């Protein structure tokens, strides 16, 4: 491969290229408007059109580098690989009808043939390259690789200005329907909103060409904010696929945390994986899902990809057709597909399995799979912090949370003990198949009793102890109740025996609970709940409400009319029977 054309590149382009080398390794020729036509004029060329600012391109870079090395090491590859930097040569990319990044086009003897529509996976691209290669002599035997399983159009660029988009009633739905959109609902007078504003502006710049970063001024567009369920400021919500896909963001609001969430939430919801890479993925994530299939099914993969978007990238979902994993994890052969949940960096055995039915009906799969994905997404052990609290305690599937109050002196030791207890709990679930028995998910968590001492005392009447004993409660945060003693009225202990027995008693409704609220707070919450229910009924059934109100008013009117009539009649009767003032 000849590299002499690099000397003709403008100095600014060379500097820009070097600046992005760390993020985007390049092992193929970089083409420019001056040498593009001459370079592709002879032979078969696979050209990647990319932008160094595009996170999909950066994610794909290692795969592209590997493909380029394979081609370079082949003495007779029958195909050449090259790249075009669309950030530097936008006109050239426009000329070749590039609609998104990265887009890979095939050219043969200078003529455009097609662009690659498959998943950007190493094996699939290797097969694609082999299909289009034109070696000058016969090539040796090739390893069979499955055909591309899911069409994937080039990614449409969003947030191209790098600025926050201001939304109103007129453009809200159209902007959200473009693709992944992260929205801040705020009020100008809100102090927290003012503090978040600079980070939101920087986030828009960071996510340029990736997703929309937008905001709604609720003082000016109150009806719009109300329609989106805004109850406090600022409220952050992510819309992956339109208005109906809204998911409220409840994690940290530091810029790095917002960036990490946006990157993860906008990444492909379903990613292919090799069986050999599973252990590494489990080691890198506290929870992952693995979709096992007997063979590549584009329709099912598309359905599962759409369903997995509800997770917003956490936990990640991978797919594979590796038959050895069916055997390793004892997945029944009759199941055409299955989803396995792996937690706490343990790839030895899944904590839960969802066995797919023979039917591939998208609606029925979504109805059954979505609750399962949401109810298995939490790790067995965790730490309750300001960033993780909402995701664990207010999780949609309402888990039971075992909370151990820790201090600086014992936090590390307690964390290790919780991991051991969590490991034993996973073994218990596997042995007794508890996960499928309708019982609630359980999370074993530690919480800093020094930082959150006031809250923990008011909610659970506990605090960190200096005598070596670790206070423990089982919290049911959805119902604002908790358990701190076993069936023998003995305080719970941080041991598997004590906690497992208590959890089983909770599942069987045999354990007495305590309220996290006092009597006045419970009455107030009850009345507020009734008022909220009434408001919901009025909004949901306006005609029934009008009928009931009018009917009630008519009934009241008739009752009052009858009451008045009876009083007049009584007065008349009394007047006729009573003696008058006259002598006769």
Q: Kindly report the name of the CATH homologous superfamily of the largest domain.
A: Glutaredoxin
Strand content: 15-25%
Largest sheet: spatial strand order: 16-18-17-19-20-21
Any low-confidence stretches, pLDDT <50, length ≥5? 1-27, 138-152
C-alpha geometry: globular
User: How many helix segments?
Assistant: 19
Helix-strand makeup class: alpha/beta
The biggest beta sheet reads: 6 strands, mixed
Radius of gyration: 32 Å
What does this protein look like?
- By secondary structure, this protein is α/β, with parallel strands linked by helices.
- The protein folds into five domains: 4-132, Glutaredoxin (3-Layer(aba) Sandwich); 165-266, Glutaredoxin (3-Layer(aba) Sandwich); 270-375, Glutaredoxin; 381-516, 3-Layer(aba) Sandwich (Glutaredoxin), CATH 3.40.30; 524-577.
- The chain has 19 helices and 21 strands.
- The protein has helices at residues 11-19, 36-40, 55-73, 90-95, 122-132, 172-176, 191-206, 222-227, 255-266, 278-284, 298-308, 323-328, 362-375, 389-393, 411-432, 453-460, 496-507, 519-540, 542-577, and strands at 29-30, 44-50, 80-85, 103-108, 111-115, 165-166, 181-186, 212-217, 235-239, 247-249, 270-272, 287-293, 317-320, 337-343, 352-355, 381-384, 400-406, 442-448, 472-476, 481-483, 514-515.
- Strand 17 (400-406), helix 15 and strand 18 form a beta-alpha-beta unit.
């Amino acid at each position: 491969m000849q590299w002499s054309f690099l000397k003709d590149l403008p100095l600014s382009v060379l500097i820009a290229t070097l600046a992005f080398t760390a993020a985007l390794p390049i092992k193929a020729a970089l083409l420019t408007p001056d040498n593009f036509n001459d370079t592709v004029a002879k032979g078969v060329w696979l050209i990647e059109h990319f932008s160094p600012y595009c996170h999909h391109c950066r994610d794909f870079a290692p795969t592209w580098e590997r493909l380029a090395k394979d081609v370079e090491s082949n003495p007779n590859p029958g195909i050449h690989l090259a790249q075009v930097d669309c950030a530097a040569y936008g006109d050239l990319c426009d000329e070749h009808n590039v609609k998104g990044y990265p887009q890979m086009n095939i050219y043969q003897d200078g003529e455009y043939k097609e662009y690659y529509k498959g998943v950007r996976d190493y094996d699939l691209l290797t097969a694609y390259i082999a299909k289009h290669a034109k070696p000058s002599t016969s090539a040796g035997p090739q390893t069979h690789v499955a055909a591309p399983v899911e069409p994937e159009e080039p990614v449409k660029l969003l947030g191209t200005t790098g600025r926050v988009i201001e939304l109103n009633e007129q453009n809200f739905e159209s902007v959200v329907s473009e693709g992944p959109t992260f929205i801040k609902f705020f009020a100008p007078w809100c102090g927290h909103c003012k503090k978040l504003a600079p980070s939101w502006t920087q986030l828009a710049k960071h996510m340029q060409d990736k997703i929309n970063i937008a905001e709604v001024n609720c003082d000016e567009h109150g009806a719009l904010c109300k329609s989106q369920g805004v109850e406090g400021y600022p409220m952050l919500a992510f819309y992956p696929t339109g208005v109906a896909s809204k998911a409220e963001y409840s994690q940290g609001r530091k810029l790095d945390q917002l960036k990490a969430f946006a990157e993860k939430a906008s990444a492909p919801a379903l990613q292919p994986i090799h069986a050999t890479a599973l252990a590494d993925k489990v080691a890198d994530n506290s929870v992952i899902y693995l979709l096992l299939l007997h063979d590549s099914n584009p329709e099912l993969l598309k359905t599962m990809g759409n369903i997995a978007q509800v997770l917003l990238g956490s936990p990640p979902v991978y797919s594979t057709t590796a038959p050895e994993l069916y055997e390793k994890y004892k997945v029944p052969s009759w199941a055409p597909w299955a989803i396995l949940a792996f937690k706490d960096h343990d790839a030895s055995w899944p904590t839960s399995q969802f066995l797919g039915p023979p039917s591939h009906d998208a609606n029925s799969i979504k109805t059954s799979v979505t609750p399962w994905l949401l109810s298995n997404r939490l790790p067995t052990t965790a730490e309750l912090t300001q960033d993780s609290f909402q995701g664990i305690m207010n999780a949609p599937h309402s888990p039971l949370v075992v909370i151990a109050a820790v201090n600086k002196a014992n936090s590390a030791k307690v964390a290790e003990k919780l991991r051991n207890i969590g490991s034993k709990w996973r073994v218990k679930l596997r042995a007794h198949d508890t996960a499928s028995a309708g019982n609630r998910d359980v999370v074993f968590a530690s919480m800093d009793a020094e930082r959150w001492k006031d809250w923990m005392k008011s909610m659970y009447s506990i605090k960190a102890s200096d005598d070596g004993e670790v206070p423990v409660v089982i919290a049911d945060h959805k119902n604002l109740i908790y358990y701190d003693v076993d069936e023998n009225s003995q305080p719970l202990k941080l041991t598997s025996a004590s906690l497992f027995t208590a959890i089983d008693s909770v599942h069987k409704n045999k354990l007495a609970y305590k309220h996290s609220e006092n009597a006045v707070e419970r009455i107030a919450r009850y009345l507020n709940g009734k008022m909220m229910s009434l408001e919901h009924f009025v909004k949901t059934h306006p005609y029934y409400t009008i009928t009931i109100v009018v009917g009630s008013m008519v009934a009241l009117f008739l009752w009052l009319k009858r009451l008045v009539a009876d009083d007049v009649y009584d007065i008349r009767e009394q007047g006729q029977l009573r003696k008058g003032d006259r002598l006769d």
